[in-house]
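fyi for ur records
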Amino acid sequence: QVQLQESGGGSVQAGGSLRLSCAASGSTYSSYCMGWFRQAPGREREGIASIDSFRRTRYADSVKGRFTISRDNAKNILYLQMNSLKPEDTAMYYCAADDTHLGSCYTSQYYGYWGQGTQVTAPH
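which gave:
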């Protein structure tokens, strides 16, 4: 069983930065695929970044070059550094874990553990 808890959301002016954190339980955290997802009102949830056990990362085009995903395996924490925030980044952000080791972390359909989400708002 994996438990996830996000923190670090808030409201920031467009162009500003935020860093989200996701604290994870589980003794084998370092082996998990980890991902960040977001969902804006009236829109489908989208995956925006993933990191595997070798720290290989992938990003959605919408955040590439502005967001950075990283992980601290000693502390069981996942991060999302968000720079140059835009109004369209406004959404609820979720971290998720996949412990199945089945295929690519970025395209995985097996993210079975989710946090409760943290709101990010970058108003016009």
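The chain has a mean pLDDT of 95. thats all i got for now
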